[in-house]
Design a protein that fits this description.
There is one protein chain. This protein has a single domain, classed as Tetrahydropterin Synthase, Chain A (2-Layer Sandwich). With 131 residues, the protein is α+β, with helices and mostly antiparallel strands. The strands form two sheets. Strands 5-1-2-6-7 form a five-stranded mixed β-sheet. Strands 3-4 form a two-stranded antiparallel sheet. It is 16% helix and 40% strand. It is built from three helices and seven strands. A hairpin with a 2-residue loop joins β6 and β7. The structure holds the ligand Nc1nc2c(c(=O)[nH]1)N=C([C@H](O)[C@H](O)COP(=O)(O)OP(=O)(O)OP(=O)(O)O)CN2 and zinc ion. The site of ligand LPXRUNBV has 9 residues, from α3 and β6. It catalyses: 7,8-dihydroneopterin 3'-triphosphate + H2O = 6-carboxy-5,6,7,8-tetrahydropterin + triphosphate + acetaldehyde + 2 H(+). This is 6-carboxy-5,6,7,8-tetrahydropterin synthase. Its EC number is 4.-.-.-. One of its GO terms (molecular function) is metal ion binding. Keywords: Lyase, Metal-binding, Queuosine biosynthesis, Zinc.
């Protein structure tokens, strides 16, 4: 069976604090987050701007979180106000995964990596998470 995997990276700047964290991360502070998304599919699809079935999905659909919060993204947001859970890197990756699945065609498997700092990152996937 054929398989295509798209890879894209983007950044966004955001503030957060970890609710209940007994240490400096419990205070409001900011990060320049880097995100890598891998999107794998066994078929190609049309998209908003391309009628023919020649893309896994549009790269732009994977990069929604890089937009400002006024446009539905996470850039220059306070993550505690955007996520329904404590905004750890783990939860941010899970949130981006879930939100991205809602923006792309069915049958695409996502792997989301979020760097909170240059040296600390998390990878998230969900075996049952294809839409
Ligand atoms: N598993 C997790 N651990 C921590 C998270 C997290 O999301 N998941 N988050 C934090 C804080 O948000 C903190 O800002 C992370 O920064 P840190 O790795 O401490 O980076 P620093 O640059 O501040 O590193 P120092 O070594 O402290 O200088 C904490 N843990
Ligand atoms: Zn932090």
């Amino acid at each position: 069976m054929p398989s295509w995997t798209l890879h894209t990276e983007f950044k966004f700047d955001a503030a957060h604090f970890l609710e209940g964290y007994e240490g400096k991360c419990g205070r409001m502070h900011g990060h320049s987050y880097k995100v890598h998304i891998a999107a794998t599919s066994n078929q190609l699809n049309p998209s908003k701007y391309l009628d023919s079935a020649d893309m896994v999905c549009d790269f732009h659909e994977l990069k929604w979180a890089a937009k400002g919060s006024e446009k539905g993204g996470l850039d220059h947001s306070v993550l505690n106000e955007e996520l329904p859970v404590n905004p750890t890197a783990e939860r941010i990756a899970e949130f981006i995964h879930k939100e991205t699945l809602q923006r792309i065609p069915d049958g695409i498997k996502l792997n989301v990596t979020v760097w909170e700092t240059e040296n600390s990152w998390v990878e998230y996937t969900d075996e049952d998470g294809e839409n």
